[in-house]
Specification:
The protein is mostly beta strands. It has 2 domains: 2-247, Jelly Rolls (Sandwich); 249-281. The chain has 1 helix and 22 strands. It has a 7-stranded mixed β-sheet with strand order 1-20-17-22-15-13-14, with no helix packed on it. Strands 2-3-4-11-6-9-12 form a 7-stranded antiparallel β-sheet, with no helix packed on it. A 4-stranded antiparallel β-sheet has the order 5-10-7-8, with no helix packed on it. Strand 18 and strand 19 form a beta hairpin. The chain is globular and about 70 Å long.
Length: 281
């Protein structure tokens, strides 16, 4: 089953820093969790030049920072200053505690990136930081960037999830990555694609609750990310961001989604009635 999510309605605007927060679990018709297994959330972050997010603490989150557009300047008490851009990736395995800040210089281009919050398999693990060049990208081929610790991916998280990216040329079709027993979640960072006869544009997302083959075709030049995740993996839900206490419980989201569906149907009904009235006149 392929579930489609439109551009998220959860947006945090802090003036110069805007976060579009995507909850994979909310794509389900009757959500029971904002995340899907080990994937807590995918945040599209936009930081204007010359802005800083001051030093702050993370606990029990594994955070992947993927920057296809712009430059993100990171500072922490362990590794010091690091630069993440289209050629470099960072994974912050926060564990028991990790402090860091983020900023852009006034001379930097606008920053648009993804910050991916992954749930670890245990709480209070040893804090670590990974930073380095990504493998060279091949045109129209999925690039494997992050996987479970010890399984050979260039970067790792302490959870049962794999992360891929790809730039797909217009008119081309490829298969999504597959792994037995894994669900697929994907996010369209730019462009427009068709998956299972459904169109997904920039900022939209899909959740495939199966390990069956699935193909994607680009209607325009597109950049996508994909995750293979074990929905039954051992996870913890104590991340300071990925499982923040202010995230609404599932029962409230189910009620909101039902209301939004009813509102859409009602608006279509009113539009249809107005159209009939205008024709009669």
């Amino acid at each position: 089953m392929l579930l489609k999510g439109e551009r998220t309605f959860v947006v945090r605007d802090a003036g110069g820093f805007v976060a579009h927060i995507n909850m994979p679990g909310w794509l389900k018709p009757k959500p029971t969790d904002h995340g899907q297994g080990p994937l807590a959330m995918v945040v599209e972050s936009i930081l204007d030049p010359g802005h800083q997010i001051a030093m702050h603490e993370h606990r029990n989150d594994e955070i992947i920072s993927w920057v296809p557009d712009g430059v993100m300047r990171h500072d922490d008490r362990a590794a010091g200053r690091l630069v993440i851009d289209r050629d470099h990736l960072m994974v912050m395995n926060a564990g028991v505690s990790f402090w860091h800040s983020e900023e852009t210089l006034a001379s930097d281009p606008p920053l648009r990136m993804l910050q991916i919050l992954v749930r670890p398999y245990a709480v209070d693990l040893e804090p670590k930081i990974q930073h380095g060049p990504m493998p060279a990208a091949a045109a129209n081929v999925w690039r494997h960037l992050v996987g479970p610790e010890g399984e050979g991916a260039p970067f790792y998280v302490r959870s049962a999830i794999d992360f891929f990216d790809m730039r797909l040329d217009a008119g081309l079709r490829v298969e999504f990555p597959q792994k037995q027993g894994r669900d697929l979640y994907f996010y369209v960072f730019s462009g427009s694609v068709v998956v299972d006869k459904q169109t997904f544009v920039e900022g939209e997302q899909g959740l495939h609750l199966s390990d069956d083959k699935l193909e994607v075709e680009a209607q325009s030049a597109s950049t996508l990310v994909a995750f293979l995740l074990d929905p039954n993996a051992s996870i913890t839900r104590q991340g300071t961001v990925g499982d923040h206490k202010k995230i609404p419980p599932a029962i409230i989201i189910r009620a909101f989604l039902r209301w939004r569906k009813f509102r859409h149907i009602w608006r279509r009904h009113l539009s249809h009635r107005r159209s009939k009235t205008e024709k009669a006149i």
